[in-house]
Amino acid sequence: MNNTPTRLLIHGASGRMGQALLRLAAEDSLLQVVAAVVRKPPAQRVVDGIPHFAASELAGVPAFDVAIDFSLPEGFDPVLALCAERGAGFVSGTTGISERQQAALTAAATRIPLVWATNFSLGVAVLAELVERAALALPGWDCDIVESHHVHKKDAPSGTALTLGEAAQHGGADPRYASLRAGDIIGEHFVQFTGLGERVELVHRATNRDIFARGALHVAGQLVRRAPGQYRVRDLVAPPA
Ligand code: NAD
Question: In what helix (H) or strand (E) does residue 35 lie, and over which residues does it extend?
Fold first, then answer.
């Protein structure tokens, strides 16, 4: 068994997800954060023993095995390019990326192992499967996806809602979307199938964003030994025994 810690770069380190990643990585002896990247030049160069870099200093970060990116679409390209250049793994949860950026992921996957996912929680992976099964079993029913998030979230519908919509489409449904931005909601996804005189409702509520950070850290640890390619969270999470 290889007990060498996986060396991580955390990109978007001052954000809500970045802070959760730094806190949870510190609790895992098999992970070592070697660089934290923040958008603007940091006030402190070293925080809790971790060197901090501005986004403009990305080229100068030390060697790492996997970068974890939870930033914004404008921060996505440079960190993906750096991983491809250095042969490092790439894990990104940044939502709202463009088609061009999706194509860049596909191109980079010929050189490095990577995961881009709109949601790193196990519960949402299960919800997507349930939505697809419900859509298959309920042909002709209306399908509506309502997502709620905190007021700071920029993209709408959420990336997770779009992922659930794809699952519904695989099952033959034609989903519609609605988005609510209110207070400090971490993330709720409600999928409703409506027939004549009856409804089926499926819902996932995130009550703590640590679920996403734990999932991303787990996936990063799994990615190190993988061949180049684009993996799904489901490919790297062992099913419960
Ligand atoms: P946030 O606004 O708290 O943090 C975003 C961080 O990115 C900030 O620290 C900002 O300084 C940094 N940033 C912005 N532009 C940058 C750039 N050019 N270079 C480097 N850093 C830059 O947001 P958050 O709640 O932490 O979410 C971050 C992203 O992750 C969003 O896209 C959000 O939708 C997504 N998200 C995904 C999941 C998932 O499971 N996939 C879960 C939660 C959030």
Answer: strand 31-38
Alpha-carbon span 183 to 151, nearest angstrom: 6
Q: How far from 238 is each of 185, 200, 222, 241, CA to CA, in Å? A: 29, 29, 10, 8
Q: Which of 6-10, 35-39, 208-212 has the lowest mean pLDDT?
A: 208-212
Tell me the C-alpha distance between 126 and 157, whole Å. 20
Over the stretch 34-64, which tens digit does the pLDDT of each residue have? 999 999 998 999 999 999 999 999 999 999 9
d(CA 12, CA 19): 9
The complex scores an ipTM of 0.98
CA of 12 to the centre of ligand 1 (A): 6
On whether the pTM is more than 0.80, the answer is yes
Does residue 154 have an active-site annotation? no
CB within 8 Å of 27: residues ≥ 6 apart: none
Ligand 1 pocket: which of 72, 153, 234, 237 to mutate (most atoms within 8 A of CB): 72
The active-site residue out of 11, 52, 149, 189 is 149
